[in-house]
Amino acid sequence: MNVSNQTREWYPFVGPFDPCPPKYVKTYVVPPNQFIPFQPMNLPQFSLQEALRRGTLWPALYSPYDSKCGKEGT
Amino acid sequence: MWIYDKKLQYPVRVSKCDPQMAKYLTEQYGGADGELAAALRYLNQRYTIPDKVIGLLTDIGTEEFAHLEMIATMIYKLTKDATPDQLKAAGLGAHFAAHDSALFYNNASGVPWTAAYIQAKGDPLADLYEDIAAEEKARATYQWLIDMTDDVDLQDSLKYLREREIVHSLRFKEAVEIIKADRETKKVY
Amino acid sequence: MNTKLDEQYYRKLEELQQLDFGLVELTLYLDTHPNDMQALQQFNQLAQQRQQCAYQFEMQYGPLLQFGHSFSKYPWQWIETPWPWQV
């Protein structure tokens, strides 16, 4: 279990006759809620300012996501 | 009953007129895993779910309406004052012919919203797992939407909504645990 | 009448949004953790802060709630712009 890194990679089979340039690595996100069956009490909190900006009061539930717009598929 | 709060849950800014992105965003307005479907799904399940999780369904269902208003705000701002030519170029010509710039509950492909998107099985586990799946699907949709725009202001609001799906999903999982535990029965003995 | 949307408006609005968001998060949390006394205390404390903050905002920029949950000056302020999607 890797909670700090929320991205998982896999390496799809590449056929010889696929016309689109192949992606050798594909990724998906596993957010932290997948590792918390029931939130424990008294988890550390963000300040109210930061909580609103991040969309959660608890750092343990925070999941960053960067846009892939304009970036070549990795 | 419900009381309207005359403010958004989170500030929504967009940095450019972008009707095409508005078209994609309608997926979360009137799509299968959109905010309207979410709100109506949860609020409708309340009447048959065990009492101890009615509060959660009420509150998450209510929050979804706040998210619906945020999506509406994005669509409104992205299309405001766009010309018919701009809308046509964005693939919104057919929408314009029927609705002008009015918002409409359909998905990104123009399919009207339908109650068939909402499941209500009357079984608490089936309904809660449906809700968890809906949250994860909405999270994924937000990811693809974030990937489709270079507008960092819009990305910011969409990232907020994506995070809310993660929190809701966790709460529904906790609701499943509460249903499984059956603490109330234990108290009787 | 057009409320002036100056820098202070956005700052005050965000301050209220921050408090209300903390309350949303704690509400959902308490729905599944009804026995967490500390979270409950934080909730009640924030609710009180929220009341003061909302009162000040409404005095300056008009009512946020209706059906009698907010007061109004004359003339009836509820119908005034801006609506949330306009700001």
UniProtKB/TrEMBL annotation, chain A:
InterPro entries: Spore_coat_CotJA (IPR020256). This is Spore coat associated protein CotJA. It comes from Paenibacillus mendelii.
TrEMBL record, chain B:
It holds the Pfam family Mn_catalase. It comes from the Bacteria. Belongs to the manganese catalase family. This is Manganese catalase family protein. InterPro entries: Ferritin-like, Ferritin-like_SF, Mn_catalase, Mn_catalase_dom.
TrEMBL record, chain C:
This is Spore coat protein CotJB. It holds the Pfam family CotJB. Residues 12-86 form the Protein CotJB domain. Keywords: Capsid protein, Virion. InterPro entries: CotJB_dom, Spore_coat_assembly_CotJB.
